[in-house]
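Why does residue order matter? Because the sequence determines the fold. Keep that principle in mind as you read this record.
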Amino acid sequence: MDARVGALLLAQLLVQIEVGRQALQDEELLLPGPCGQRSIPTRIVGGKDTELGRWPWQASLRLWGSHHCGGSLLNRRWVLSAAHCFEKNNDPYEWTAQFGELSAMPSIWNLQAYYNRYQVEQIFLSHGYMGGSSSDIALLKLSTSVNYNKYIQPICVLANNYEFENRTDCWVTGWGDIKEDQGLPSPYILQEVEVGIINTTMCNHLFSLPSFRHDIWGDMVCAGDPQGDKDACFGDSGGPLACEKKGVWYQIGIVSWGVGCGRPNRPGVYTNVSSHYEWIRMVMVKNSIHRPDLSPPLLLLPLLWAPPFLLLA
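Structure:
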């Protein structure tokens, strides 16, 4: 009788430990702890090669193994990107996310690159996305948790971006073309370029000029240089527009669309992340609930019949 009581108490303790462990994992999925940190102090059009670790949240989203779009790591299981990246290919099985690499085409001998490549489990597009330029945002849930290191870290997001409206020192990163008619040359190193946030009134004025008219409104953010030459380009879609404040980096925008690349008076247009903050939070909360791997009945049965020496050990 004593042995069975002891076994029951031990089983209950193990169940509580397992439930607690799963709860901590769930909490980390939603609250990744410190974000926006990087260990490296501070081609995209007009940009330059970056250094490993400067943008540790940068993801290469790969369609059947080849780079297709950019993304950003929000926590161990979630990646932020643009909805238009998945218009033609929305089967998660076809996608992986690569982290911690400078090259979009790492060597086949680079085993670390394959170790830091994660299968996509689910793809969520904003309900407001209708194939146009608004609500161009997507969340990707990974099949397994990302291992953080000094080259792989999450970026922060905010419920509002008002304090960054007039910043001139934000950065956009990606593996896209370096000119409208020129792809990124080998060895396909991640590019970075410093851009300024352009307020909506000015951006609407620029896009009202002849040759192309488009209303900039709602969930769009403009960034670049009125003179051109500093911009995202084809292949950078889904990547982050990031600004720093007091040593912490925040994602302000997602590379969405533009008129050509680096043209005067045609800044890049980004999805405003803060406009979709609640959607991001709700998708993550709704799809990050895990149950313990071992249910209490399955865990209890073998322990109730455990021999006495297991209880005395």
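Helices lie at 2-30, 111-115, 200-206, 277-286, 296-304, 308-312.
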